[in-house]
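Human: I would love a firmer grasp of how sequence relates to backbone shape in proteins. Could you go through the record with me and say what the backbone is doing? Here is the record:
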Amino acid sequence: YDRNGTLLVQNTARFSATIIPGDLTDGDEATAYRMISNVIGMPASEIEARVTEGIEVQGEFNPTVIKGDLERDVALTLIELEPHVPGLSVQVEPSRNYLTGDLLSHILGYIGPISAEEYEALADEGYLYQDFLGKSGVELSYEDILRGKAGKKLVEIDAAGRELRVISERRPIDGTNLVLTIDLDLQAAVQEILGEYSTDNDNAAAAVIDVKTGELLSMVSLPTFDGNFFSGPVSEEALASLIESPGKPLVNHAISDRYAPGSTFKTIVGSAALQEGVASTGTTIVSRGYINVENEFDPNVVYVYKDWAPLGALDFYDGIAMSSNVYFYYLAGGFADEGFRGLGADKVAEYARAFGLGSLTGIDIGGESDGFVPDPAWKQETVGETWTIGDTYNFGIGQGYVATTPIQMLRAITAIANGGTLVTPHVVAEYEDSLGNTLEALSSDTSTVPVDTANLQIVGQGMRQSVTSGVARNASVSSVAVAGKTGTAEFGASRDDGTYETHGWFVGYAPAEDPEIAVVVFLQRGSGGSDASPAAARILDYYFSGGGPTYGPGEDIPVPDPSPVDVLDATAAPGTTDEPIADLPEPTAAPEEDPDTAPEPEPTAPPTAPPTAPPTSPPTEPPVAPPTDPPTEPPQETSPPAAALPDERRPHGVVP
């Protein structure tokens, strides 16, 4: 059931032809196989082979499935044949009918026939060779609860197989129903909205979470699949086609894939800078669109680290609202020429991990990736190279080696929204028996981020300003005050013009003044401001207005007029000050680039020492090969944060 009591999954009957080999009449097996073959349309030789395999796996006196998913008429004919073929029986097994089709497939998962390996591991727990069990999603995570316990009857029989007496009997125990945290109507709206902003073969993910409890109200991964695909016989060809389908529909991209978080990561860097005293609300940094860093081997070579525009004087709120790369270069790596002390790579990594990056969130469905948080020690040990200031600058704006899952970024932003609590995202709310009685409410663990509530509120105010007058204005809706942060992270090989394709991110929460829910939107191809933000706006508007989506892709979303803090100073020299800036020129036109894209730093002359090369191997395990049988967990598509080959896996940006 969903959180409102809507039925999501229904049990149905499956008919299977089985044989207990030890009950077959000695010397008359071939006749029995021919009689069964005439009814089910399977060659007698194949029936014999399956019986032989069953004997090898589980002995002569356990039923072996000869053919499953029989038509009802075929099953009835076999039942009439049972008195003439000792050992033959028709078993009625429960199956699943997923009533929502492809809407909840990554959450619910699916069931499938037990494999030989699974049977060997689970036989002592009462599983039979013909059983079905959960393979992914909730079906797998909560298999023990959903399944119940099979009954067992031990009887004494005579030589003809007639029952003489019951020696012992154990009654079956029904499985327990689950009540999900998911709101089915919201789930449908989120999937529809997300689909309009992503293409058929691109990965996309979105989720909505209760910031106080960690209950996931919606979680969508695209492309998706219909769980009913696994409710009947699945050919190897059909399964291979699904596994190899572009976009990997069996993968839950909300929890299994990891990507550079782009400028959404600035919320964590900003929190760390406030907590460590690197910045305050009055720390003003002037961006004229770049900073220069000398090559450490030759001071005549200067590397240029670009901002997305010459943004002028920015205080802390403006730095977040305008998503200034220069501002966060300073906060993360400092700027030695002006004596500005940044956090440093180790501190950035420490706070990233404190916000849950680089580790599992604990979500109650399988297949989760832990992402990756780099640090200087890792690079030295794994790559054999020294960490550079360029690595720190890339790290500070969510590029380079760092990689996160959408659910990790949602959890991190939830901690900012609720005052510092890292909740555990979960999709199951409680158990319910067949009479509707609640048996046990589920609880989830929490922890606290090491950032004062006041500092988290400051970051939240910057996020609110980003929506009202900054780069996240497309996330503004009339029904509720939104606080949010966009991200546009480069990936892949550079195009002919030197630019890259980008991932689009948005993380945020609402109402800004008293947060209730948080949302994440990820698009494999797109931008944070132009694509992910309006998608999030439609999701939030649906939730808070109850009137459904009001804006379509490409439509203008009403936003407030820019406030006076959006002052751009294209002529000011880069630098910092604690004094207020007054009488600055009027804003200049914004450039064509997306504000969150991280431009590559460019040297003004060829360096005398080569820039740091990317690592020669991924920082984590190699990708998992697609399974040949229905997977027990979705096959994981890992995206290493960096690797030497091919080019599309390199951390973007030249480092001095």
Summary: The chain has 18 helices and 23 strands. The first helix runs from residue 29 to 40.
